[in-house]
Amino acid sequence: MTPRDYLMHVGGAPMAASGGRTLDSVDPATGEVWARIPDATAQDVDTAVAAARAAFRDPAWAGLTATARGRLLNRVADLVDANADSLARTETRDNGKLLREMKAQALALGRWYRFFGGLADKVDGTVPPMDFPTIMGYTVREPVGVVAAIAPWNSPLLLATWKLAPALAAGNTVVAKPSEYTSASLVELVELFVEAGFPPGVVNVVTGTGAGAGAALTSHPDIDHIAFTGGPESAKAIGRAAADSLTPTTFELGGKSANVVFADADLDAAEAGVLAGIFAASGQTCIAGSRLLVQRDIADAFVARIAARAETIRLGDPTAEDTQMGPAATPPQLERIVGMVEDAVAAGATVATGGRRPDEERLAAGLFYPPTVLTGLRPDDHIAQNEVFGPVLSVLTFEDEAEAVEIANGTRYSLAAGIWTRDVKRAHRVARALDAGTVWVNTYRAVSPLMPFGGSGLSGHGRESGIEAMNAYTKTKSVWIELSEEVQDPFVLRV
Fold it and tell me: Which fold has domain 258-441?
């Protein structure tokens, strides 16, 4: 087939890369080049940032009321709903995730735009009771300016939306950069913002490599906030670049999340939750429950259940209804998965199931890796401490509640965790003790625009979704008004 050519979107119009270079987008299920995207230069990034800055000051955007911004976001939601199937198919073609999962995500996007559209005119200031008898004071929350929104390859539209919706609701303008592996869907999404009536330059998309367009964007002195989802090493580089301009950041960087199963749990529910936590989306989610912590009393029987169920998971074409797990999204990611499992086995881990690439002819052209369960691990083993971002489950056992918490908290990540127990008191105790930004009890892998999401440590900082997300995209201004006719002593600070 002839690959489809995509263009960037800058200043309200399509734009090719000024250097004329493009990047191939490869379908990870087939190995086929299906699209080409522009490889933006630093000059292209300058153009996009300048367009965003001009739009931020333009009355066509700056003069809108917060209510009017909310209406625009609601129009986007309607258009996303209407185009969800097409957007989902593009994402599946780009990253290899199941079409039914991508459809579910695409249909959910409107919830974020509607939530933040409704919130746009409810972000207000305060009137503090001043301790000066003749002074009236109040605060207002204003947009920060131009936001760089950088989305990863695993859920491009959802994780871009987590940045776009609150940033635009607050009145900012945006330069978005998707992963070079999965750019097509975000370019398609921005066309819906144009159709919804957003002024030119309010939402811009540049495409290209992290080392090229990404570095130019995150080091740009006219960016007022950087929102990034990705890995810790990339975040460190972004943080160093942002430091030169003191640009604030929001980082969501993944995790090594513990799924903690107590002996009193509903084991049928726990089994489903563990499978969802690590094998859904081929384990390529920041919230993957990649560490199974299971109480020793039930460990052998429960792990046997997980391994047996994992062996029945059908790999294949992500667009097929009977496929349960698709390929890894990129060749480097597949290499990382293979290498980490091989190193773990060499260090003494036992493979309960999986552990090597499938040899079926129908899977040969794709980037497939089977559901893998590793046992015989220690909490400080490399694979139990570091994110694989693939369908690899590390099994650890614990004796009691205290040991479960100690092991769960024993990594540098703190994004999410799961608890499986029928004891409501234990559920609350352990949820309170776990160092995690999100704790699911008797469920796993659920998100909502109403609930804040994020972590600390190597899982990043700041929060996306929920009312708290608006904090990153607004700044507080204090206004003092003297009500008396008194003339102030010019040489004495009023305190």
Answer: Aldehyde Dehydrogenase; Chain A, domain 2 (3.40.309)
